[in-house]
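Lecture notes, unit on protein representations.

Consider one protein chain, 123 amino acids long.
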Amino acid sequence: MSPTVMIVEDDPSTRRLYRFLLVNSGYTVVEAEDGIAAFEHLQKTAVDVIITDMNMPRMGGIELVRTLRQNHSDVYVIMVTAFGTPDTEKNAYRAGVNEYLTKPFEFEELERRVKDFFARRKV
């Protein structure tokens, strides 16, 4: 089975765009509309990488990562946000995020970061 990436994003069009990009790169992609849905999915199925938005209803990205790190410390997390500041970036890394991207960014950059993670993991 191909490596699995979870997209946690409340905007359906952004989720579709990320899915298209990652599926075309050969990854299995699962989706969640917020942190609660993501955490529920993780109780049933393992994923390798999570790409999460920071600001979402019900449970945002920071809270998801804090919860995630209690039981799933090996999942690689890339956080993306349109509202990035030095403080939000610091908070993201303190919560346990592995990488942080501020929107807008080139989608190829996101794809590269996922690909680089899997390349490092094979070593």
